[in-house]
Automatic annotation (TrEMBL):
Residues 83-180 form the Gfo/Idh/MocA-like oxidoreductase N-terminal domain. One of its GO terms (molecular function) is trans-1,2-dihydrobenzene-1,2-diol dehydrogenase activity. Its EC number is 1.1.1.179, 1.3.1.20. It holds the Pfam family GFO_IDH_MocA. Coiled coil: none annotated. It catalyses: (1R,2R)-1,2-dihydrobenzene-1,2-diol + NADP(+) = catechol + NADPH + H(+); D-xylose + NADP(+) = D-xylono-1,5-lactone + NADPH + H(+). It comes from Drosophila hydei. This is Trans-1,2-dihydrobenzene-1,2-diol dehydrogenase. Belongs to the Gfo/Idh/MocA family. It comes from the Eukaryota. Keywords: Oxidoreductase.
Amino acid sequence: MWRLMNNFDHRLYKLSRQKLQSLARRRMPHMRTSVVRRQSTQQGESTWISGENEKPQRQLRWGIAPINILAEDFVTATTTLPPEKHRITACMGTYRSQALEFADRYKVPNVFTSFEDLARCPDVDAVYISPLNCMHCELCHLMLNHDKHVLCEQPLCMAEQQVVQLVTKAKARGLFLMEGVWSRCLPSYEYMRSEIAKSKLGVVYDVRCRLGWELPNAQTSSSAYAGVTRNWAADCIQLALWIYQEVPMFVRVDGKLNDAGVDIIAEIELSFRNNRRAVLELSAEKNLANMATIRGTKDCIIMNNFWSPTLLFFNNREVEFKLPTTECKTYFDSRVGMCYEIEEARKCILNGRTESKLFNHSESQLMVNLIDQITDMMAVKDKHVKVQRVAAIQ
């Protein structure tokens, strides 16, 4: 069972020769002088700044690959952080006009219309990756090959072996790699971990997550629709793994498929040792409470919007966690909370770590393994999936 959590001794992945879609490279001449001033001996090096009560540090220079609404939220989140610690220095957009408009709005000095050119940019230390899910793995390889640290939106990869290969490469090159499960970096999660460690809940034995939105039939019938398991299960699974901090023993699934054979309802149960469990309910047919409950022998915690909880109901009181305020609104609720993940990435990079303790490489591998198994268990011809129960790790 624990082989999955520890075995990363696989050969390096060879990046596919297939080129990503790109257009001619273009910079913005009028913005070239707006790069933050740096004292350097070589192109691309930046000044190290001494911070109080911390190791010498530098401004982390971010590249955006590519421009989209997730990237917009990422940039908005960085505006809450000190500019001497974080700066967006490059961006990539498939369409030249889109890239120029984004760069002008956020004062980004380096603009590209190909991923390869962004990867070669000497003014970039780390890259935020958020294209279509199927492109995540290839882009991560590209950036690692050019010695860029990587923060990638989930899923990191579409298959377990791909995660193994990426992790092997990042460790071999001494580069930071993190899947963007930014919930783990939030103050509310830190608070809950502290209360659980103090046994305020007693022995935690039950985790319940409900996540659902009524989606139009046209969307769920689209060939691009991946299903509720692929789209939403990760947010629930990461919470269960975070609470129990171990590999589940069994997985049980039930659900409903649409005419195309894609799941629109999923009920997932993860069984852990000592009769502990996590029950996850996902639906694209109806709106659910989008809340999570963590039950222990002494007390329970109820989380609103559990992927980014700002309010916890615990010990007969409400505990509120206010997120930083910004001039611009994020496209998705509470995604300004990514600022904590962005700062976590910087701390890890400055300390020479290749992974974050808050969401490590083993968990990325385990999560894609579980989602693959659940998806396979749901893939039956019947519209109503029969209840299935299998060992979590085979």
